[in-house]
Write a structure and sequence with these properties.
- By secondary structure, this protein is of the alpha/beta class.
- It contains 12 helices and 7 strands.
- The longest helix is centred in the C-terminal third of the chain and has 22 residues.
Length: 310
Amino acid sequence: VVAVVVCSFSVVSLVVATQVVSLPSSSVCSATFFIIGARKGGTTALYNYLTAHPKVLPYKTNRPVTHPSYGEIHFLQRHSYSVEVYNSKFPTLQEGEITGESSVSSLTAFLAPSFALKTCGPNIRMLAILREPVKRMHSQFMMRLRLGTENVEEGDSFTEWALAELTSFKLRVEASGMEEHGLIWEKGLFKPGENAIFEGLYYGHLRNWMRSFPKENFKIFLFDNFYANPADHLRESYEFLGVDWREVDEYEVTSRKFNDEGSNNTKHIDLSNDAYKLTESINILFKRLFKPHNEALEQLLGVKLPENWW
């Protein structure tokens, strides 16, 4: 029996009444869940929260939990090694235990859903946190600034960077023959992380995933709602994955911080620099671009998006 519920705190809850997780064989991927995105939506924190549970085991890594790519393998995007090699990165599971990964590339990688179905089977669970797209873009710029990565350097202007992303987006859309406000696409327009606007077209990305998996396989959170009450949402995530939330102190777990300025993977940035700010004119410009996609997302998820999305 499948129950589709919209919770009182405005989070989409897509729940299967019976637990579908089972111990994987060597010919099937070991992951029983994926956090698929969105980039700069809090995926690192959610993965750390989930793996604080004694029955939710993390994959094997030498990265510290404060690393911005902790929990990320990008198997569904890269297809660069076999299922057997992929499985070697995960612990051996006992009955009642689950494991998974958190790769932000998965949401926007066009072939990831069909590859996940082929290698992991129809019962895999997906979680995602969706952040207002313009704020998500700005956060992505600031993270690149702090990390000194992907051609973003100290002193660069967010406005100029965002407009360059817009130009790149429009040129790619024009070359593809797709309408600028096209809500779905039949092939990948950009590689994951290649364009900040494309990352925020959540409706199209989720529709692509739901071609391969039914809605009940997904737990979709909205960023503002999740972090306004993270302990309750963590309990809901544990229930979705079929583990007992009472085995952890969810309030202590969700008090931990990840990917903040000052962690061991970032450098200090002078936030008073006007070049880094999201201006009102840029905010309005990009909210107008994202509006039809957000309207379609509301219909898909059956929720009303927060006011700051508009």
